[in-house]
Amino acid sequence: MSDKLKNIKNAGFKVPNNYFEGIEDAVLSQMKLKNIEGSGFKVPDGYFESLGDTVLNKISKNENTKVINLFTRRNLLYVSSIAATILLLFNLSVFNKKSVSFETLETASLESYIMNEYIDSYDMASLLTNEDIVEENFIEHNFSEENMENYILNNIDIEDYFSE
Q1: Which alpha helices (H) appear in the chain, and where do they start and end?
Q2: Contact criterion met (CB below 8 Å) for 11 and 5
Q3: Is the pTM of this model over 0.90?
Q4: For residues 28 and 34, is the Cβ–Cβ distance under 8 A?
Q5: Is the pLDDT of residue 63 over 70?
Q6: Which of 34, 61, 117, 128: disulfide with 132, CB 3.0–4.6 Å?
Q7: Span 83-96, pLDDT tens digits
């Protein structure tokens, strides 16, 4: 099929001889553009003399217009609530800057951050100082049996061990 398309030598369309030489004159003669004078539009007699009166008559009939008051109770309520919100936002956030340190953080929020965020050992090591990394801190722990049971029940999924 592709070989047949490559072997086509002509387009298949034929135009009569000297067709494009007289095309402009033929189109203009058919449309009779040479004989038309003016724009082709006609205005009725006396149209512009009576135009002003008819427009004024139509305008004078519509004298009753609806007046909308800008300072309604509803608009005043919207504006005052927006102003109060902006004022409250600035009072809560801009003027009460507190310094955040490890002493002011709650233990529960710090634990939940560590448990829920991806923190690797390098991040944890950057938080510890040389005084925190003492061997005695890691050796001497007194765990009660009750605390161990509560930790195992709350944090370890026992069903994973049954399936293995």
Answers
A1: 2-6, 23-31, 47-61, 73-93, 107-116, 121-127, 135-139, 145-155, 158-163
A2: no
A3: no
A4: yes
A5: no
A6: 128
A7: 999 888 877 766 55
